[in-house]
Structure of AMP-binding protein:
Amino acid sequence: MSEQPWVERTFGDALLWASREYGSREAVVYGADRISFTQLADRVRAFARGLIAQGIESGEHVALWMADRPDWLVARWAIPMIGAVLVPVNTRFREKDVGYVLAQSDARTLIVQHGAVRGVRYLDILERLEPGLATQPQGAWQCKEMPELRRVIGLQADESTPLPDSITSFAAIEAAGKALLDDGVLEQRVASVKPGDVAQILYTSGTTSFPKGAMVCHGPLLQNNAYAAWCFGFDTKDRYLASVPLFTATGTGYTLALWLSGATMVIDSNPYDVHNFCTIIERERITASFFVDTIVQDLKGYAARDTHDLSSLRVGYGAPLPTASFLWLVNTLGVHDMIGTYGMSETTNAVSRTRYGDPLDKRAHTNGRPCAGVQVRIVDIDTETALPPGKVGEIRVAGYTVMPGYYKRPDENAKTFDAEGWLRTGDLGELDADGYLIYRGRVKEMIKPSGFNVATQEIEEFLQTYPGVRQAVVVGVPDARLGEVAYAYVETLAGADVSAEALIRYCKDNIASYKAPRYVEFVTEWPLTGSQKIKKLELKTRANATLQALQEQAPAQAPAQPSIPAA
């Protein structure tokens, strides 16, 4: 990897450097397509020049709404390369959220995939937002719901379905840009971009309210993810299976880490399932991937797992992962260089990481030391005073990776930064005696039974040690006597015989009684965000509604403790 300080560089610098450094090596695998670093960079340069020809200016916001594919990568590099700002659109968003992001971000250009994407047609959603889509003048749109939008660029996934006349062809822009590459215009634009310029706006998943757009900059993005590549030990021999969508902060992270280290990104052209996941690892000799706990549990329960050769896997990381899942990946699946990490969109990806050579105990039980150039402290939730090692409080972060703020959200910015300028993460954590960070969940997810502060993640991890439990999520619900108690949602392994009474007794016998769930509800599926995280607040709302319904059904003489819900 280059020794140059990437914090002083831009996306254009990174694109051209890796193209020269790694040349004909495979950069991307997508189905039958195998694309080298040079080939991808050539496409990016052509599309970037085409965007300039379309009139896209430095600082202009360009939204990208497309499934994972090489064209997504072409656009995601080209947009910041010319000083425009990338606005990735969550592919799970529908009309309400898409309309909000396009309007709130002041996107002047939208790049959208035409045709059906796993049963969803993005142009149909766009037409509901703008009923006059078909008659809008190309390059001069005027929309009530998206007042800044001027042009829409369409990628034809199916050549048999023509684009509406109001939409400019992605392929035509790339072809036109390729013909203009010798005029020097692209080089002039690239040279005008600064490392401190905003490169993209990452919108949060919006599980409880409309999403917020975190502005992140060229240099910090590159530097932080170059550091990530070093922590993973990535080099040109590594092959990474993209298991999390490209539009996410994680997607940004692995895109940059792989590019800067000369490793190969493998994109599954089919919807995720555990069979495809294992098949691709075996066929492509995958060495690395991102493991959300859903994937870990799928692998655990996959009866045909041992028929696949997964021995190429070397390194991985999670969201963060429960310790039991982390150790299963290391000890059973053989991903010996698993690392722990903690980060968020607002911090240009990672705040802390372990390194592949760190002791297993640290990698499995912590989220690593703060990344180089990043400071972390833990503060008391009520008094905001700094806490010593071993005490749980809110994680606060400072350093070059912290975003300048949310786009056009001064109210949120005022709440997000403290008086000293440190980022309030809203996450619970503690530092151990060696300075390693341990993530303990969200501040809003802390519960206070009998006045004790309890991180719900602690209860969840303990529940998952019970035989037959696949996954557990704990939320707090009101209680007349204790103030608040734990309500556990539990998914069991197929065929497992697990009862609510047995789980509650197991907790009471092994952890503090006030931590034991009062209620257990069994589930078979989870509400997920676009980045595959469980929507805890949706579950909390559901738990409160369930208890309210039980209370309304119960006769007046019913005992104070409601019965345990079963679902």
User: Anything to note?
Assistant: The chain has three domains: 6-21+35-215, 217-444, 447-553. The first strand starts at residue 26 and ends at 30. DSSP finds 17 helices and 26 strands in the chain. The domain at 6-21+35-215 is CATH 3.40.50.980 (Rossmann fold).
